[in-house]
Each structure stands twice: as C-alpha cells, then as structure tokens.
Amino acid sequence: MAPEQPGRVAVRWMRETGRTVRARVVAHTCDHCSPLAYELCASGGLLFVRRTDRSGNKPEIRETERLPDARARRMWLDLLLGRAR
To answer: What is the pTM of this model?
Structure first.
C-alpha cells in the first residue's frame, strides 16, 4: 500500500455488521507486511472493504458500506494508492 497522500478522503469504517454470512474475497493486501490488512469482498451482488487491524491485543475488524461494483473498486484503488484511509 502506498503512503497516505495529501488531501486524502476519509473512508467511513463501521463495526462488522454480521449481516453477511458468507463473503467472497475478491482482492486483498498482504497481512504479513503491516498490522493493517484490507480485503475487497463480494456478497449479495455488492462489494465492500473489510479492514483488519492487528496492532492491538485483539484484531479489530471494520467494514465499509456495501457498494455497487464500480464505486467499491474505485474506493479500493484509492485505498491502495493512499488517496483514501
């Protein structure tokens, strides 16, 4: 993942909702390189990003809202390029 860029957009991270029984991981970042790992997930025809923070004693999982494919993939790319956090 790229370093945070000036003027980056803040992503709204919500607690894991549990509304998804199964989600397919479409893409992911390396979970060994950083305590923060991101997954682009698909479920019910929508995509969302799941963030796992392993910097504390217990992993903290947050998710974005469910979005149509194009919007979610744009957010995913912005996260990877440091334009969103």
So the answer is: 0.89
